[in-house]
Structures are given as C-alpha cells and as structure tokens.
Amino acid sequence: MSEQQPFEPKIVAYVCNWCTYLGADLAGTNRLEYPANVRIIRLPCTGRIDFNLIIKAFEMGADAVLVSGCHPGDCHYTAGNFHARRRWILFRQLLETMGIDTRRVHFSWISAAEGKKFQQFVTEITETARALGPYQAYREICQAE
Amino acid sequence: MSRIGIFICWCGENIARNVDVERAAAEVADLPGVVCSVAYKYMCSDPGQSLMRQKIVSERLTGVVVASCSPHMHLRTFRKAAAMAGLNPYLVEMANIREHCSWVHHDRQQATTKAVELIRMSVAKVRANAALQPISIPITRRALVIGGGVAGIQAALDIADSGREVVLVEREPSIGGKMAGLSETFPTLDCSQCILTPRMVDVGQHPNIRLYTYSEVEGVEGYVGNFKVTVRKKARYVDMDACTGCGQCWNACPSKKNLSEFDYQMGNRTAIYVPFPQAVPARPVIDRDACLHFLKGKCGICAKKCAANAVKFDDQDEVITEEVGAIVVATGFKLYSIDRDQASSKLAGYGEYGYGQYPDVVDALQFERIVSASGPTGGEIRRPSDGQQPKSVVFISCVGSRDNAKGISYCSKICCMYTAKHTMLYKHKVHDGQAHVFYMDIRSGGKNYDEFVRRAIEQDGAHYHRGRVSKITQENGKLIVRGVDTLVGEPLTIEADLVVLASAMQPAGGATELAQKLNVGYDEFGFLSESHPKLRPVETNAAGVFVCGACQGPKDIPESVAQASAAAGKVLVMFSNEQLSREPEVARINETNCAACFACVRACPYNAIERAEVRDRKGQLVKRTARVNPGLCMGCGTCVAICPSKSADLEGFTEQQVYAMVESLV
Amino acid sequence: MDIGYYPGCALHGSSNDYGSSVRACLNALGARLCELDDWICCGATAAHSLNHMLALALPSRNLAIAERQGYEELLAPCPMCSMELLKARCALTASSDLREKVSEIVELEVQGKTRVLNLIQILQKIGLDAIKQRAVRTLKEFRPACYYGCLLTRPADTVQFDDCEQPSSMETILCALGAEPVQWNYKTECCGAGMTMADGPTTLELSHKILSNAVAHGANCMVVACPMCHVNLDMKQADIDREYDCRHDLAVYYLSDLVGLALGLDEKSLGIDRHFVVKR
User: Fold this and answer.
1) How many other CB atoms are found less than 10 A from the CB of residue C278?
2) How far is B260 from chain C (nearest CA, A)?
3) In what order do the strands lie in the sheet with B226-233?
4) What is the pLDDT of residue A3?
5) Among A83-87, B81-85, B240-244, which is the least confidently predicted range?
6) Is residue B655 situated within a structural domain?
7) Do the Cβ atoms of B340 and C163 come within 8 Å?
8) What is the pLDDT of residue C279?
9) Which CATH number fits the domain that encloses residue A93?
C-alpha cells in the first residue's frame, strides 16, 4: 500500500426494500454524490435483519455497519421496524458488553423520499469510519484463535 | 455446479460514463460458477432481453445476474424474460450499478471497483437461489358482509350486482344502521330515510344477497379464499317465510311501553315489533324480556291475530355455516356515553354535564330522532322531560372527542357538520328559538361543507361560541350552561331548555371481539386497522378481510359509501380469478428444527404462522412446530430474525443467500 | 388510633376554630392527633408561582418529618395543605433522582411513603358504623348544603378522592347521622379563595352565588371542610349581605362541627361559638 493513499473504510448497509433502498435510489436519480465505500444489501424489511449479520459484516472486514429502514409507523409490513428497533436497543447493549466499538454501528430511519438524507448519512458515516481508521482490534480478535 | 450468466448494462451513457463496463465484465467473468459475462448498451430493450434469452438457452444457464438499474425498475422485466427462455424467474438477481453506483460516484476508478463488488455480491446470492413456484390458492367466490348499515349495504350491493353471492349479517332485526335513524343529512339536507330505504329494499330483494338479520357472526375459521363462518340466527319467534308483515300482531300487542332502541329510549314500542316502519326485512321480532307470553305465560294475542300462523313461541336460535372467500367488516359506530359507568376507567364520564342524569341533555343521535318526521315526537321539536318546545338550545361539540382526560384523543370528524345541521333544522322548526354552539374548532373540510356551516351561522343565526362548557346544572326546569367564549374572553352562562351533546364516535360494541375472531388488528380505541393508511386503506393485515365505514375510524356517509365501494372493488378483484396467485417469496419453517417456542407466531404481523403438530402415520404426536400459511405470509421476514433456533427462513432472502452476499465482500 | 397531624398555618391561626373542631371531634371518636414536630409551611399558593423546587421542597420536608416520626398516615385538614403534600408525594414516588435531590435540600431523607388524608378520609377510615355507634343525638334538623370547593377533589389525578365533579362523601357521612343534605349545584365551584385579599368584589360575587344557590335549594346551613371556604362564606357573609342587599343568614359549619354535635360535644369545644354567623 502506498503511503499517499488514504484509508478507505469498508461499509456494509443493511436496508429495507421499501424505504431506505428507495431512498438510495432517489439519491441516484437526483445524482447526489456520496463516497463509494458503502455496499448495500437489500432485505424486505428491517424486521428481517438478524443482528448476527452485523457481527458477520465485521468478521468479513467491514469497518462500519449501517442498518436503516422505514420511519416508525411507515413500515410496509406494519411493524417490522418496531421489532428491529426493539432488538436494536438490546443488541446495542450486547455489542457494548462484547466490546464492539458501537461508534461503528449506525441505526437510522430513511424514507423513500429522503435521498438527501441518505447521501448525508452515508457521507457522515464514511467520514466517521475514516477517522476511526481500520477496525484493527476486531480483526486481531478474529485472528487470535 | 451453477452456470451463471452476467449481463452488464451500459444504460446508454448512464452507467458507461462512470463505470468501465467492459473492464467490469472481464473482472467478474472468472468468478466461480460464472460461464458468461457480457455487456450490452440497453439490457432492458428488446435486443437486450433477447440476448439474455439466447444465452440462457445456449449456455444452459442456471442463474442470471443483470447489472443495471434498481430492481424496483426492472427486476420484474428480467424475470419475465428469463421465464420466457425457460429459466425459473426466481433465479434472476440484479446488481444496482446505476442508482447506487454510476449516478452517485463520479470517480470512474472507484465506481468501477464498486460495480464489480456489487455484481460479485449478486453472483454470490444467485448461486444460492432456489427455483420457486408461485403459490396458488383456490377461492370460494362468495363474500360475507358483516354489518347492514349504509357501508355494509353499499358493499353488499356492489358485490351482488357484479354477479357474486353475498351473505349479509346484521345484528339488529332490520338493516339500515345508524343512517336509517337520521333526520336529514348534511350538506344538502336531503332526507336520510328517503335516500337509504330504497337501497335497503334492493338488498332485501336482491337474488344474490342472502340476508341474515337479528344474527351475529360467531366464529371464523380458515383463511383467505376459504373462510368457514358460523352465524347465529337469534330466535325471532316469528316465521320469516310465513309472515306477511301485515302488522296485525304489533297493533294488537298489549305490552306497549317498552323503550324503543331505534328511538334511543325516547319512544316506546310493543313487545312484538318492527324497529321502524320501513324495516327490511319487514318482519317483526318478539322481545322475550317484554312479551307477556314469556313473562307471565299468558297472552298470545299476536298469535291469535296472525292470519298466517307465523308466530312461533317455540322458536330456537339457529347456527348456520357459510363458506366464503372474502369478508367485508362494516360494523359501524356507537356514541360515547357521558354516564358515570364506563367500559374502562380511562373513559370516565362527564360529571360536569351531569353524567347523563338530566333528561334534557341528549346526544346527537337522540336529537336526530327528535327532529325526524318519523321520530317519537312526529318531527315536532319537543324536549324529553316535559314535552315543551325548547326556545333555547345549546349544542356542545367535542364531547369526549379530543379530550385526553376522557382517553379519547381523536377527532370524531362528523360532529362539526351535523351540529351545524342541527342548528339549521332546529331554526327551521322553531323560528323564535335560539341555537348556541360551543366549539373548539370548526372542522368542515369537504365539498360544500364550509359553505354549509357559514349558512348555519349567517342565515339561520346560530350563535357560535369558541370555548368549552365547564358545568351544566338544573335550576327551575332550565339547564344552566356555564362556559367560556374564548374569543370574547369572558365566561358565559346560557339558560337552555335543551342541551345536545356531539358525543365522540366509538366503534360499535363487540367490534374488538369480532376483530379478534378475524385476526384483524385494532387500535387503542378499538377502531379496526387498515393494512396501510395510504395505499391499502380497505385491506387489513388478515388477507381476504376488508374494512369499510366507521368501524375503521370516524367518517361521514359519503366517505363510508366510498370506502364500502372500494372494499367491494377489492373483493371483486380477488374474485376475478378462480385461483389466488401469490408471490412465492414467503417464509417457511424448518419443522424438524423448530423448538415450538412460537416467538414467530407472536411476532408475525399477519397472523400467518400457526401452531401445528407433526404426527406420524398412526396419528401419534411427534412434535409441535410453527407452520407458515403461504396464503397469508407477506414475506417481511420478521420471523427469521426472531427465531432463536434459526428454523424460520425467507424464500428469496434466505439466510444462506444473505450470508453469501456478506461473505463475498472480502 | 394515633394519627400524624399536620395542622398547617390556618388551623393554628385564623382558622383555629377548625383546629379545635377537628381535634375535639376526632378525639371523641378515639383518634389521637399527634402533631408533627417542627412542621413548616406547605407552600400554599405562593411557593409554586415562585419556584418549582421550593414548592416541592416545602411539603417534602413535612413528609420527611412524618416519615421520621413513623407515621404511615398524615391528616392535613386543610385541602390546600393536603393537595400540596400529595403533589409532592406523587412527584417523589415517581423519581428517585428527585428524591435524592429533595432529600439533600431539606436535609432529611424523604421517600414520600406517608399517605396523606383529608378530614373526610379520616372519618371514612374510622367508619360510618363506628361514628353512628358513638352518636348521641340526631342531626335531623340540619339540611346542609355540602360544599367541597375547588381543592378537595382536584386535581383529580393527584388527590384521587371522591368524584371530581359530583362528590358525595360528606353527604354520605351526614346522612348516616340523620341530617338531610340538599341536592344543589355549586358543590365544587370556586368561593374566590385567596383572591379575597386581592380582589374583594369578585370573591364576594362568587361566594354570594354559592350561598344563594344553597338557600334556593332549601339548605338551612352549609358544611365545609376547608378553612379558606369558611372564611369566604362565614366571615365574609356580612360583607356579602351588605354588597348584595340581602340576608343569607346561613350558618357555615365544618364537617367536624356537625359530626361533633352528633357525638354530643358542645359548641364551645368545637369552636362553633367563634364563627361569625351564629345560628339563631
């Protein structure tokens, strides 16, 4: 790696099909530029997101993970995002207990109309991740075995 | 071993400008399982699709990844194309390299790298894809409509007119609902019965409508397209077929002083009665609790008078089973009662208005009967206590509604309009009388609605006071109404002869119990929940069950009718096919692994998961398990995330597929 | 029965007739009132308009004293006092942060455990049967208009006592002792309360309406359970008569007065002789 090249974080985004995925589509339609670090994985609903996927993403070398779905009350499936939120509250504590750097995990509501919010959010997360540097600590734990 | 084809779209310059499509095609060609990787200018065009079809056949592809625009744009297109070439459509995945890549990243190097990774993810996913078959469910093309008010009548007629059979169940002895008791309707002041009763007759005579009045839905089994409904026909003690509705019986009945439900306890009826003259069916019913035959064992005058021998004192309740494919719920509303005794302590009554103890404090539906030409006063406005004509009437809006202290935070929506109507009807009959209205806001959105309220104020001289009433007391036969006019900024006392309360609309009694039978959700107030507030306003989360009218939320007649027709329309769309076809991307349970904790059953927003039993050939119980009804599952996947034993999975987004995508990111 | 007793400023001062009445009546019923040591002002109307924390801390200190002295129940015959104590109690039980903070301010550990009762609740607790048993005379010549005023039942969520708009607990007690309370319309209206100092005429008008309505519905006396109401309806009655050129001539009793009379106590020990309107 050349010394000049800045660190490019790897970011995995788990998003719901009906709000955030369409929000990202809208960012595209409006040509709202954002850093190219994010990889979106489309799921039907945030309710579908097993939070083990967050751990899995870190295991696969992600430096930050983003989970985003419909705003409360807007869920395509009525209540999936509430399930996700409830799980997230518990899971966040679990992550902290496990010693995972929760500054690298982001949870958000982005609607299909919020292309701009998607752009800003992804930009922000990328910058935060860049500032935090590679998630070396996790990788070391993984390799410790 | 998979044989995957990758088709990368230029989208003209849209993708090709920022993504080096040829380089990307070359880089992904070596991914495991990939047998061909091509780029083309417009994949969605005819030649593009035909290129894909050719490759599917010539390369014997077992999976396809199209790297182009958003799947929301063209996934359906490409899946259809694949199906035409003989490939199961669910073996096609897309990589979104336009909206999520070329349009938002201007650095060609970075965009190309990202595009390659997105394609790699999709290849990883498609490798784990399974061929899925659309789910088809046979449907019984008959509908059940619950509730025979204006909404239920409209829905039943619309469905029946299209040639489908309808079972209409009404709890009261006649259909007609609340609307049958109204005097005149806003904003046109046309007579409510004049417009409704012909529709009621249509229902009664319709060859496609089977009408059960004085009946209630007792149980519902089955699922969309295949419901089995049990209806309890309450004993009417009158043979419906023999009776001619001549009226000899109720004219002769000696038990005359029974409070009339139809007149909201302001008038009397006999023990054998029709609730109102235009009732459909025009057949009487005997009120056991008032009938001298049942109370004292003698009388039977009605039976003697009946030339048709239709009175049957030994009549019994009858339970009937009906098979239907769709259900429309139109159970309507009731008014909040200000009484001290309430269903829940949250709804604490109105001590400041006397808890319903003053006979001249009536609610809006009672006032409708007082004004109605067919009402207990024959249309003359006279107050209940002493029959005097009230010279001063106070109307209070938002009684219960928008009052958090009473646990009802919502607006009942119709009260502003009917209160304006009441002041007009009153003024038209009592020329020297004065109507006063205490209001919080005037909400008169709707065609010709605000003009109507202005007319009440400007032409018919109703005095509108913006403020609340703090207390009603009784003094020398007058009701002393003390309130405040906040626009004047002063307390206000009015000596009234009659007070009319615009009480909050609440779901009709028994609505929540019915909702539980139907697996339909309801809110904290008991209003039934629609599936989506904007896009699925008459559907519910129970597939095949639809809602219309005031059971779903406060609404007026035009809205109830519109919603009823919408519900009927949805039923007919469903009935337009012999089979119900559904997307196969639904959940399934690995029944071998399922630990039967049923966390999924509780989490499922569609009640699509049931507690099932696995039995061996001898019928011995092997184990309990959760089981998905694919006819009901909408594919949200909440069960997958919640399942502690990882037995639930979602077709199209299986754990294997999703993990493969993440793993491909190395 | 020992009951913690918080007289508040009124029962020690301007309304010491109420103080005598409560003490005499409850003693006759076998309840011993144990006045809190070193109690302070409840804050009344002044504190909460100045400083929220002050308004919580003042009654909280009294609750703290009651707790330290081991009273599970505390009688506050003045509705203003009992309401302020209850408000503080609600706030304290709802928040541990607040408990800590207030304990620090009042320099006493306070949990907000002590239940606060008004006069009617104490009588209810003693029980109608017990009161009737000790009664030596009937109150049948009394046709009282029972007046609850603004604070006995309000704010409903805080005091959780009787029906906020249509209370009837005083009637129940008096009926049991033979009195014939009248049905009337101003049970929970405002008498003008403390406004009597700032805006005399308004208070006179409000109290005049209350007295007039009681008379119009056939009352021959009034019964209150609040020192402030008593001031406006009894002490000020002469002013009302003068202002409105009338003669109400309506004796105003405390609830404990009438119960005391039924128990055979004399007017002097109940402090009735210190009232302004004296029954002919």
Assistant:
1) 12
2) 30
3) B215-223, B226-233, B318-324
4) 53
5) A83-87
6) no
7) yes
8) 67
9) 3.40.50
Q: Does C160 touch chain B (CB under 8 A)?
A: no
CB pairs under 8 A between B and C: 18
Decide if C165 and B340 are in contact by the 8 Å CB cutoff: no
End-to-end CA distance of chain B: 22
The beta strand positions in B63-198, using DSSP E, are: 63-68, 92-96, 135-138, 142-146, 165-169, 184-185, 190-191
Residues B261, B348, single domain; the answer is: no
In this model, does residue A2 exceed pLDDT 50? no
What's phi and psi for B147, nearest 5 deg?
110, 125
Strands B226-233 and B215-223: antiparallel
Show the domain range for B628: 587-650
Element (H, E) at B484: strand B478-485
What gap in Å lies between CA C113 and CA C103, rounded to an integer? 13
Contact A31 B103 (CB under 8 A): yes
Strands, E, within A1-145: which ranges? 11-16, 38-43, 64-69, 105-109
- Cβ contacts of B74 within 8 Å, gap of 6 or more: B44, B66, B68, B94
Give the three-state DSSP class for B324: strand
CB contact set of C129 (below 8 Å; sequence gap of 6+) = none
**Residue B478 one-letter amino acid:** K
| Sheet of B490-496, strand order | B469-475, B478-485, B490-496
Whether C44 and C84 have beta carbons less than 8 Å apart is answered as yes
Cβ neighbours of residue B493 under 8 Å, at least 6 residues apart? Answer: B480, B481, B482, B483
| B89-117 per-residue burial string, b: 16 or more CB within 10 A, e: under 16 | bbbbbbbbbbbbbbbbbeeeebbbbbbbb
**For chain C, which domains are there?**
2-119 (1.20.1050.140), 135-274 (3.40.50.11810)
Residue B646 Cα, gap to closest chain A Cα (Å): 10
Domain assignment present for A69: yes
CA–CA distance, B87 with B248 (Å, rounded to integer): 74
In a domain, B660, yes or no: no
Task: Show residues of chain B in contact with A35, CB under 8 Å.
Answer: 105
Residue C82, C-beta contacts closer than 8 angstroms, at least 6 positions apart: C76, C116, C117, C118, C159
Element of type H or E holding B196: helix B192-205
Domain assignment present for residue B110? The answer is: yes
Is A137 among the domain residues?
A: yes
The pTM of this model reads: 0.81
ipTM of the complex: 0.93
Angle, helices C255-262/C119-126, rounded to nearest 10 degrees: 30
Which tokens hold the place of C271? 């402090």
Same domain assignment for residues B412 and B457: yes
Does A3 map to a domain? no
Q: Is the pLDDT of residue C9 over 80?
A: yes
Which stretches does DSSP call E strand in B331-477?
333-335, 361-363, 392-399, 434-439, 463-466, 469-475
The pLDDT tens digits for B503-523 are: 999 999 999 999 988 988 888
Strand partners, B363: B501
